[in-house]
Amino acid sequence: MNMAIRGPRLEFSVGAFLLLALASLLVLAMASTNQRWGFGSEGYELKARFTQIGQLRKQAPVKIGGVVVGQVGDIDLDPTRFDSIVTLKLDPKFKDLPADTSAGIFTSGLLGESYIGLQPGGDPEVLKSGDEIVFTQPAVDLIQMVGKYMFSGPGNNGAASQEAPGAEAPATEPQK
Asked: What per-residue confidence (pLDDT) applies to 120?
C-alpha cells in the first residue's frame, strides 16, 4: 500500500517538474528574443565593409567597450568588390558616434560567438544613420592561423635556426 501511494505522487512530481522546466525555457526564449528584437526599426543603422567576416551571423551583438549597443541586422556581399557589407542596427541613444569610429570582428573566448566591436574615435563629426564605417578590421580565423603556424612558419624556421649553430660549431672548433 505504501508503494501505491508513492507511485502516483512520484509520477505527479516528475510531470510537474517537467512542465515547470518547459515553462521556464519558454519564458527564457521569449525574453532573449524580445531583447534582441528590441533594437527595431526605430534604431539607427550603420554599414561596415569587411574583407573577412569569419563566423559572424545576423543578430550577433554589436559592442562598445564590452557593452551591447546593438546587433547585426543584415549581411550582404558586394557584387563588384566581393567585400561583405554588414548592416549594424544600434540603439538610438548611441546615435552620436564619431565619424572616425572603427569596427572589428572579434570572438568571445576561444570558441565563443563572433561579435562586432566598435571603437569610437575623437572626430567632432558624427556618423548619421545609413553612413558607412570606414575603418574596419576583418575577422581572424584562429584555425587557419594555427594551421599556418604548425605546418609552415616556426617548424621550418626552427629547423633552420637549429642548423645554423651546428654549422658554426665545427667551423670554430678547428680554429682553436
From this structure: 92
